[in-house]
Structure formats: structure tokens, C-alpha cells
Amino acid sequence: MPRSRTILNRLALAVLGAVLLAAALWLSAGRTSWAPELPDRWPLPDPHTSIVPAGRLGSLRESGWWTPTVMTVSIVATLLLAYGTVRQLRGGFRRLVPLPAPHGVLRTRALEDALARRATAVDGVAHCRARTRVRRRRLDVVLRVRLREDTSPHTVLPALTGLARETETVLSPYRLRLHIRLTSRSHRRPHVR
Questions:
Q1: Lower CB density within 10 Å: C or N end of the chain?
Q2: 124 in the same domain as 164
Q3: pTM here?
Q4: According to the lineage, what is the superkingdom (predicted)?
């Protein structure tokens, strides 16, 4: 995804989150009631009523499972949402790899795109995705290669290992560790119903 589109997506999510947070704070802390906005045929709730009737809520609180269950579900939901947010924020940042040339840097996303294009150009490869992780003096690259249906992995591997050797010589101060994951479409026949 282009970087400008990623920034716009995250900006739209941040604005939506801020609007929803402001609305929740206004409804919870404000003195105004949202009840007059309801249709005329709906009964108006008391200002101090809850979603669960008071008698039912009291019996739920007396049972031993209610409080731990509500707390566990709330904590798990909060942790999952926080993890999703952190993953969204981490996903857009890619490291720059300094090269030995003066003022030379390499964007890992550019390296991934170049490797994916070169691997897709190999005869028998239908699609390729690359992912790079930068360690201290090592680059870990994972190539997910989808083969065409009539292609054997043995015909593609020599070209892909040659691509790995060539990439390692270009990135000479760094060691390159290349993982190749080959997949292909299943050869099952389509079912007719």
C-alpha cells in the first residue's frame, strides 16, 4: 500500500476514534440526556436506570462468577485492542539500512519490492512477496513464492538462490539470511453442484 494511503487510513481512524471518544465523554459526563432524541412511542427511561434491571443486577453481583467474568472479559478485550493498535502503529515504519557509500542508505521496503519483482520474473513463479527484518549486521529476508501449477520447486530454486547470492554481494557489509517458502495452488478439480 502506498505510504500516503497508509497515512490517510491511520488519520481517518484517529479522527473517528477522537469523535467517538468525545461523544462517549459527552454522554457520560454531560448533564444532558439523550432520551428526548428517542421516538415518541418508546418509553422514556429514568435518569438513574441501567441497562440491566436493578434486581437482576443485584442477583448477578451476588453470584461468584459475575465479577471475575466481567473483569476477565474487559481486560482481555482491552489487551487485544491495545495489541491491534500497536501492530497498526508498528507496521508502517521500516528501517533504513546504511550502505558503505557516503550518505548511502537503503530502504528495506525498496529492497523488498526489488526482490519480489526479480523473483516474480523467474520462469515458473506466479507471485512473490518479500519481508525484511534488519538485525545488527544481518538482513533476514523471507520470500513467499507461489508457483504456477505446472512448475516444480526444483526448477525454480536455482534461480532464487542465484538471486540470494547476488543480493548478498550487493549488500556486502551485511550478511543475508534468505528463507524461501514455496506454495502452489492445489490440483483439486472444481466441484460441480
A1: C
A2: yes
A3: 0.52
A4: Bacteria
Structure confidence by residue, pLDDT tens digits, 102-139: 888 888 888 899 999 999 999 889 999 999 888 878 88
Q: Domain for residue 192, yes or no?
A: no
Question: Which position has the grid cell 471475575?
Answer: 68
Q: Residue 128 contacts by C-beta under 8 Å, 6 or more apart in sequence?
A: 115, 116, 119, 120, 143, 144, 145, 146
Question: Do residues 74 and 87 both lie within one domain?
Answer: yes
Rounded CA separation 126/82 (Å): 37
Q: Can you give the residue range of the structural domain that contains 81?
A: 50-93
Q: Confidence band (pLDDT; 50, 70, 90) for 66? A: confident
* 76 and 30 part of one domain: no
Q: Are residues 104 and 178 in the same domain?
A: yes
Exposure on the CB side of residue 22, measured as CA atoms within 13 A: 6
Query: In this structure, is residue 193 part of a structural domain?
Result: no
CB 124 within 8 A of CB 148: yes
Indicate the pairing of strand 175-184 with strand 138-147. parallel
**Judgement on whether residues 29 and 58 belong to the same structural domain of the protein:** no
Domain tally, the chain: 3
